[in-house]
Structure formats: structure tokens, C-alpha cells
Amino acid sequence: MMSTGFSxxxxxxxxxxxxxxxxxxxxxLATATVLQSAVAYSNVGGGGVALPPWAEAGDQFMIANHAxxxxxxxxxxxxxxxxxxxxGAAAVLAAGAxxxxxxxxPTIISLIRG
Length: 114
Description:
Layout: H1 8-15, E1 20-21, E2 33-34, E3 39-42, E4 48-50, E5 60-65, E6 71-74, E7 81-82, E8 91-93, E9 98-103, E10 108-113
């Protein structure tokens, strides 16, 4: 699909890529675990995950927290922010919650938690 102009994560989302177990780590954007898939879940709380630096406008991500405690989700770079918040700041994903994320522009990211 990428040869038709879709980005890697968009192609994965369209194809219904498998959810990848991800272990959050680190305490900031520079040290967080970088997502390797558009669909990820964790059964370990604490630390954080970062959207991949290759994420671009139109890409979508789904992250599920199956842990007993929260973890942070960081934008793909220090210039981007979630829902009009501070650039580079993390969004907290509570225990048992899911997040749907869409990259709107290189600096604007929409995040819905549920």
C-alpha cells in the first residue's frame, strides 16, 4: 500500500495491523519507548511511549493500557502537542484506558481517551 502513496502507519491501519505489545519506559520524550506499530497495547504501567518520529499528517494510532497503573504518551517530536497543549508534553493514559490519536499537522495532534 505504501507504493500507492500511503504512509507506513496509515497502510498498517488500513490493513488492520496486529496489536504489538509495548513496554513503556523512560521519563521524557527522549527516553520513552518508541512505538513500532500503529496499534499497540501494554500490560505494564509507568514510564512512557512516544509516537514514532516518522509519523506524519494523516497517521493514526491506537494505544491500549491493560496495566494497573497509568503511563505517558509523548508526541513524535518536541515541537508537537496534544489537543492544543504544550509542545513536547506528555498525555497521561490511565489504567484500563485506550487512546485514539491522529496526526493533524506536524505540530498538532488530536488525542481521544476512553
